Amino acid sequence: MKKKNVILPALTLAFLSSFFAISILTIKFNQPIKNLVKAYVIRYSYAYLEPEAQKDLEINIIPLDQVWEMLGKVNQDRALNDLRQLTGEDPICIRSGCYTITDRLSGSEGLDWAQDYLYENLVNMGYSVEFHSWSTPDYADQNVIARKQGVLKPTEEVYFVAHVDGARSYDAHFPAADDNASSVVNGLELARILSNYQFKRTLVLFFSSGEEQGSKGVRAYLDQLSSEEFGAIKYVVNHDMTGYDDNHDKVMELFHGGHPPSVGLTQMMSEIIGIYHLDLVPKVVVGCP
Ligand SMILES: [Zn+2]
Fold first, then answer.
1. Cα(42) to centroid(ligand 1), Å
2. How close is the Cα of 177 to the center of ligand 1, in Å?
3. What is the CA radius of gyration of the chain?
4. Cα–Cα distance between 8 and 63 in angstroms, integer?
5. pLDDT tens, 191-242?
């Protein structure tokens, strides 16, 4: 591929470890977590937490053997194989056949194939997977949502979000590879590894569409939730444009909206990157890029 310096493995590790650390916070230290998060803004790399979560994030994070074991299972070849299929470098193949993706615009055939690929793979991993259809006057598409039920608190959910749709490509090659097939393959690799573990809370891998038109898929999803379902969302980490380091500085930007608990979550993720030697330079950033 043209862009050679793909840093997917390190970024996948970062998201993997952040998920696991979030789970561990309550298991390891037995901290009471009540009404931690109401995920609201899921644009770019925002994370949002309720104020009660703040003290939970002040705990020192201790590296754990199980996390090292999980990190060791990240497979770069597998992730790159997904990336090549999602960007038309190789045909994308599902049970019904193969197709070469030329773009993943919302409403496009290419995005349909990408979503079917996600659906089949996630089902085969044992996740409970659903399509959530949405429409606006201008656009219609669907989100792919995979769940793995938590063992101790199944009604509390931890979300990892990545948009599958892409903007129109002016380069005929590798459509929307960094923005945002890179994060979609992170999500798939996370799904593969985490499928072999049990967690306290329910894991939700949310592959959205309509992001390039204003996060339409995510907004439609949030709008149709009941207040109880909305309250079940405890943590949200959205990843976007995570595959291409154009200036080779290894900086991973962790965006938050300035809300103190969200600042705490991004700082925690920053610490995790250091503790697990992920070969990234975390940079906490306020605002929206
Ligand atoms: Zn994006």
1. 11
2. 10
3. 18
4. 22
5. 999 999 888 889 999 999 999 999 999 999 999 999 999 989 888 888 888 8
pLDDT tens-place string over residues 32-78: 222 222 222 232 333 444 445 545 555 556 777 888 888 889 888 99
The Cβ-side half-sphere exposure at 221, using a 13 Å CA radius, reads: 26
Q: Maximum Cα–Cα distance for the chain, whole Å?
A: 52
Rounded to two decimals, what is the model's pTM? 0.82
Domains of the chain in start order, with CATH, are 8-286 (3.40.630.10)
Distance 257 CA to ligand 1 centre (A): 17
